[in-house]
Design brief:
6-stranded mixed sheet; 384 residues; single chain; Alkaline phosphatase family protein; Alkaline_phosphatase_core_sf; Gyrase A, domain 2; globular; Phosphodiest/P_Trfase; Alkaline Phosphatase, subunit A
């Protein structure tokens, strides 16, 4: 049984929320200074590698010699849950989940229906409905983004990401404010980031690459396909850095790490995990458990007894008090489960019926382990 404690995110000090504010300060955008001090620059690029955890990069440094050799202003904690949509909203707004309100891959948004925040559809339906009209991303996440702040102060802002993310719910919620440039593969991702940082005036470019996370889910983190993809990403970063203007900076970070799951609990077939539960959100490594009226104490006790030392199982009130979500805005409280579950070690709470595809994946993330929480902040620039 694992005996390490949870890694509580260091919001306001050493988290993803401080990355873009630090880059904006380096660009001379007025506002409160936050995050690690960075040198003044005219152009700043931020390359987000989905699934690039600090522990994984250290363990496989020989596959990524360029990245491993860069100065690291981290490690940073990503926030809770350590899931992509949560992390991108934290990065994009400069705020913790308790303030921006994206508190899980799936969570109760404005009504009793769960929102899949990664795809912005109704969660758990065979043919999920697009919710961008009924639950506009700008209403679910109403806080200004760092990209909007930069653009308002005259910075040329670009978002370089896969074409299918243009106008997606998550892009609108977390990364609005930039000129979107859709890409097909590594080649045009590198070219478009380089192009966005080249030219006159102050410039900010956010670039995103997803495939390391995909291969970690499918084959496991550290598998041969994952390592070979890491080698391609190392070349991607080296290529961009090699074409940086002399007055530009490239920062490389991740949105979470990943663990290999070997101890699954099935919430769709285990009666103890179903009793008193109205809705179950989150993902296999972090769950929001919404109880029927009056059933929260019994649900909390049942989940604690069933999962034992394989999870931190707490009430909503304790999760908030312990700082898992950071400061909490009033409209966000009901989005958090009556019971909040963060898995430990190699355990996961799967849903074999509702989430059949996700439940079969060996690589998972979302919890408060160091492997999932810590990501690097690697810096590449040409000294003046």
């Amino acid at each position: 049984m694992p005996d390490d404690g949870p890694v509580v995110p260091r919001y306001g000090l050493r988290s993803l929320a401080e990355v873009l504010p630090a880059l904006l300060t380096a660009l001379g955008v007025p506002g409160p200074a936050a995050g690690p001090p960075l040198p003044p620059v005219r152009a700043a690029g931020l390359l987000l590698i989905d699934g690039l955890g600090t522990d994984l990069l250290v363990r496989h440094a020989t596959d990524a010699p360029f990245l491993a050799g860069l100065p690291d202003a981290g490690p940073l904690t990503v926030g809770f849950p350590s899931s992509t949509s949560v992390s991108l909203a934290t990065l994009g707004t400069g705020l913790p989940p308790g303030e921006h309100g994206i508190v899980g891959i799936s969570f109760r948004a404005e009504d009793d229906e769960l929102l899949n925040s990664l795809r912005w559809v109704a969660y758990g339906r065979p043919q999920p409905a697009d919710l961008r009209d009924r639950l506009p991303p700008e209403r679910i996440q109403p806080m200004p983004t760092a990209l909007e702040r930069a653009a308002a102060h005259g910075v040329d802002v670009a978002v370089v990401a896969p074409r299918d993310q243009r106008a997606s719910g998550l892009t609108r919620a977390a990364l609005r404010g930039g000129r979107f440039q859709g890409v097909h593969a590594l080649g045009d991702l590198a070219a478009d980031v380089i192009g966005a940082l080249t030219g006159p005036g102050r410039r900010l470019c956010y670039g995103y690459h997803a495939d390391l996370d995909t291969l970690g889910h499918v084959y496991g983190p550290g598998s041969l396909p994952w390592r070979l993809q890491l080698r391609q990403i190392d070349q991607l970063a080296a290529t961009i850095a090699g074409h940086l203007p002399s007055d530009a900076l490239l920062a490389v970070t991740g949105d979470h790490g990943m663990v290999q799951v070997t101890r699954p609990y099935d919430a769709d077939t285990d009666d103890a995990l179903r009793l008193g539960v109205r809705h179950l959100g989150g993902d296999p490594r972090s769950r929001h458990v919404y109880a029927h009226d009056g059933a929260a104490p019994e649900v909390l006790a049942a989940w604690r007894e069933t999962l034992g030392g394989d999870a931190w199982v707490v009430s909503r009130e304790q999760a908030v008090a312990d700082g898992w979500f950071g400061p909490l805005a009033p409209h966000v409280q009901h989005r958090i489960g009556d019971v909040v579950v963060a898995l430990r070690g190699t355990a996961a709470v799967i849903r074999s019926v509702t989430e059949p595809g996700m439940s079969r994946l060996p690589g998972q993330h979302g919890s408060l382990s160091r492997e999932e929480q810590f990501v690097p902040l690697l810096l590449a620039h040409t000294p003046q």
